[in-house]
Amino acid sequence: MNKSDVVKLILGERLYYLPNHLSANAFAPTNIALCKYWGKRDQELNLPVTSSLSISLGNKGATTEVSITEQTQDIALLNGEPVNLFSNFGKRLIAFLDLFRAERALHFKIDTQTTIPLAAGLASSACGFAALVLALNKLFHWQLDAQHLSILARLGSGSACRSIWSGFVEWNRGIDADGMDSYGSIIPEVWPELCVGLLIINRNEKNISSREAMQRTIDTSVLYPLWPEKVNHDLSAVKKAIHEKDFLLLGKTAESNALTMHGIMLSAWPPISYFLPETVAAMQKIWELRQQGVALYFTQDAGPNLKLLFLSSDAELVKSHFSSLEIISPFGV
Ligand code: 2P0
Question: What is the pLDDT of residues 92-120, one digit of tens each?
Answer without folding.
Answer: 999 999 999 998 889 999 999 998 866 44
